[in-house]
Amino acid sequence: MHDGGKILTGLAVFLVLALLPFWHNAVGGTAAAPQPKIVTQEKECVAPRETIRSTHMELLNTWRDTVVREGTRTYMDARGKTVNMSLTNTCLSCHPNKKEFCDACHNYLAVSPYCWQCHVEKKESA
Description:
This protein has 126 residues and is mainly alpha-helical. It has helices at residues 4-26, 49-70, 87-94, 102-109; strands spanning 74-76, 82-84.
């Protein structure tokens, strides 16, 4: 019953540790979000921009499963246009610089997609 000081000290330490990330964010401790370079003549992607930004990994996984398991290689995009289901031939034809496009966001978010375990990175054109 005489441990009030220890309890208050423990609560204070807990609150400091629990609120530290919020304080760090408030004082500007986060890096700016990347702005990937889009080098394409196309006006639209296979899906709306916000959809691609948030769910491109699901789309690519679906494409992979469909191509490998079913042998289907065509996809009808949001506009009704048929495109080839291919990371290297469809996606990277519009976004050819992996370092400036893919890696910029993946490094910022600290994710390591396993695409490049099977796919060969296209050589940058001079």
